[in-house]
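In the design runs reported in the main text, the only information available to the sequence generator was the tokenized backbone. The following block is the verbatim input for one such run; it is reproduced so that readers can re-run the procedure and compare outputs position by position.
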């Protein structure tokens, strides 16, 4: 299949030269971009009229918890910080099934695609006893809707009885976790260019997994050449937990168990000191920045401008839908820009910096060289917004306009791997009302199981 994105009013390529183009075409053959330039010959390609559109590389979401869709806006925990928030929700999440996870994933992935996200990493770490194929359910949802997917096989092995945070009802034995991790790598991981699915291993956090699981997971990941991911330095409570339980700060602990390097990325990374930032930079260890969730849970503000100056790889992420309440990457762009200006100064981060984090930065965290920019040979992952819409009336700079004006709206067109998956702001693979109905039914069932009114 071939497509020609014709006569785009503006193209933010985010390529190696940061080119910004006007009135040019993008020719797509199969999964890849083959040419960018004026007046390209469409041949037999389907033509997408972009004369009133701005075109951007697909956004890369580097940290999510899709299952949390089912506990959005739950009353009773809207003014809680992370630890009490988790303690309240763990017993509810203990009712998850493969069907409910599938429904949640459809909702979240649909939201992501409609907000310009073309590649999503999801960190699923809750496996109620007797439920083992939950990652498979997410992968099925990703395939159905057509997003490029990086499922992270999460895990929790340190329950309350042994000093951890989660109840025993949602933890697993190390042997079970490692066996399923190997199965998922063997079954789904595709390391080739334009791959639509790559697995990562992702023990949940220092307060929910054993030292042994961290060590064995990173060893297994490096054996199979997949990446590793976990939460780190998200809250002061976590720092206190690590100091009390293992006698180290969180990053020192990660270093001690072999969790630093270019194949590792951490979610949040708020409470690092200057020495720890230097360690991250020296080892090429990455950070998934989650500005909306960090604000909602009052966790703090990550030092993103300082990280960028040091050369630390940084990507953008929406985090869990119960600590964000949405899966809107455009909203995350705006939040990232504004919280940086408020906290670190008016010139600490620009709109172009934020777009780079959400495209090239995210690609770097996930270990991908085939996404993150628009150039010949790159994956045909992009989204279009209408420049003539009410959202952008009066705007002069398309990149700033995208980030500061349109965050509450959906995009016009999303293309993933050369395939149009959103057209006129609507998902093409599945009726949106059906997805919403599935999500609502699954959420009601989950809440009823937990006995919450």
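Verbatim output:
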């Amino acid at each position: 299949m071939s497509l020609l994105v014709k006569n785009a009013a503006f193209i933010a390529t985010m390529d190696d030269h940061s080119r910004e183009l006007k009135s040019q075409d993008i020719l797509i053959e199969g999964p890849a971009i083959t040419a960018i330039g004026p007046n390209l010959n469409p041949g037999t390609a389907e033509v997408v009229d972009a004369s009133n559109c701005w075109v951007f590389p697909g956004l890369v979401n580097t940290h999510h918890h899709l299952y949390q869709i089912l506990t959005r806006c739950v009353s009773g925990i809207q003014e809680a910080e992370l630890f009490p928030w988790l303690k309240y929700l763990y017993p509810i999440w203990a009712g998850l099934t493969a069907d409910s996870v599938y429904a949640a994933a459809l909702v979240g992935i649909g939201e992501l695609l409609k907000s310009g996200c073309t590649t999503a990493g999801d960190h699923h770490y809750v496996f109620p006893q007797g439920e083992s194929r939950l990652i498979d359910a997410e992968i099925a949802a990703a395939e159905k809707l057509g997003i490029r997917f990086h499922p992270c096989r999460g895990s929790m092995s340190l329950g309350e009885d042994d000093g951890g945070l989660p109840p025993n009802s949602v933890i697993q034995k190390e042997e079970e976790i490692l066996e399923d991790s190997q199965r998922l790598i063997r079954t789904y991981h595709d390391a080739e260019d334009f791959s639509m699915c790559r697995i990562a291993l992702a023990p949940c956090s220092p307060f929910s997994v054993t030292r042994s699981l961290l060590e064995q997971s990173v060893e297994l990941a490096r054996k199979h050449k997949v990446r590793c991911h976990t939460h780190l330095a998200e809250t002061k409570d976590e720092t206190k937990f690590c100091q009390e339980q293992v006698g180290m700060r969180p990053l020192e602990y990660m270093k001690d168990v072999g969790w630093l390097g270019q194949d590792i990325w951490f979610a949040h990374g708020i409470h690092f000191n200057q020495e720890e930032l230097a360690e991250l930079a020296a080892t090429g260890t990455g950070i998934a920045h989650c500005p909306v969730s960090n604000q909602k849970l009052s966790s703090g503000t990550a030092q993103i401008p300082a990280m960028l100056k040091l050369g630390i790889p940084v990507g953008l992420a929406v985090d869990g839908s119960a600590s964000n309440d949405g899966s809107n990457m455009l909203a995350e762009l705006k939040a990232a820009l504004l919280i940086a200006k408020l906290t670190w100064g008016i010139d600490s981060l620009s709109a172009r910096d934020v777009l780079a984090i959400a495209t090239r930065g995210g690609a770097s965290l996930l270990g991908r060289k085939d996404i993150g920019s628009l150039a010949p040979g790159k994956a045909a992952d992009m989204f279009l917004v209408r420049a003539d819409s009410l959202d952008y009336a009066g705007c002069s700079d398309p990149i700033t306009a995208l980030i500061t004006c349109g965050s509450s709206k959906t995009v016009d067109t999303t293309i993933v791997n050369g395939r149009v998956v959103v057209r006129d702001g609507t998902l093409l693979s599945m009726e949106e009302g059906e997805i919403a109905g599935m999500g609502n039914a699954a959420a009601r069932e989950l809440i009823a199981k937990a006995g919450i009114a």
